[in-house]
Amino acid sequence: MFFMLKICPRNESGVSLIAAIVFTIMMSTISVVTVSLVITDNRTSGNHIVNSQAFWLAEAGLERACGWLRQQDPPPGGLSPFTQYNDVALGSGTYTVVIDPDDQNQGNYIKEYWITSTGEVGNIQRQIQIKVKMCTFGKYTYCTDSEGGTIWFITGDVLEGPVHSNDRISIYESPTFLGRVTSAASSFRKGGNYNPTFKEGYQLNAPRIDFPTLQDVFDNYWEMNSDPPPLTIDARFGRDCNIQFNADGTITF
Fold first, then answer.
1. What is the DSSP string of 195-240?
2. Same domain? 127 vs 170
3. 189 domain residue, yes or no
4. Which among 21, 59, 92, 210 would be 20 to 30 A from 176, CA to CA?
């Protein structure tokens, strides 16, 4: 028994049409994915820029608050947090700074503060928080306001920490300064064979340092206390002390 098979010729135009449709769909898909990636990348880049702007606004508020604290004499009292700067406009956003006195500030002469600075651009916020502490003159190896008589640094002198004077610093021959040297004067007083060693460099015409007075200490005490401090007068070893009791209840000595 024989079967007759009929072979149909290929429709080339139909195959080409299908291939074209598949290719078009693939290219459309690739285009959509590419556009989506570009949009996502642009959004990511934009968010990064806005985040950076908010961060630097917070940094600006922090620096301004630190500068403000340095100028306060006496330093802020109390223990309650306070807003020093609120929604200050800068650039494309704002910053807000809150200063919180440390709970241990009560009765302590060396104050500490928490500073929280928040930068905001649009709906993006960045926040920085640091703790700052008052500096003492203890960090200096040598620190003076007015030299009075001339004090010379000479060969063999080795100063291991920072040195500052609101007056001229006198140098003779070859002393060694291991820390940075600063002076509010425009020059050093130079003795013979002037050849000092400045391991950390030096700065002339530096800003003056304000020294506290005894009145500053009293003001700081009364800000935190209601009872007067005990008074001890040492008149041993042949020393004399004159005490005057005033009509207003105070004493002069």
1. --EETT-EESSPPPPPPPPHHHHHHHHHHH-SSPPP------TT--
2. no
3. yes
4. 210
- pLDDT per residue over 14-54, tens digit each? 556 566 666 666 666 666 556 555 555 555 565 778 889 99
Closest CA to 84 of 92, 210, 71: 71
CA distance 98 to 104: 18
Tell whether 55 is covered by a domain.
Answer: yes
Domain that holds residue 164: 137-203
How far is Cα of residue 30 from the mean position of the Cα atoms in its chain? 50
The residue with tokens 């007068």 is 233
Regarding pTM above 0.90, the answer is: no
Structure-token pair, residue 30: 């690739």
Q: Which of 107, 133, 159 is the last residue of a domain?
A: 133
Structure tokens given for 129: 């928080």
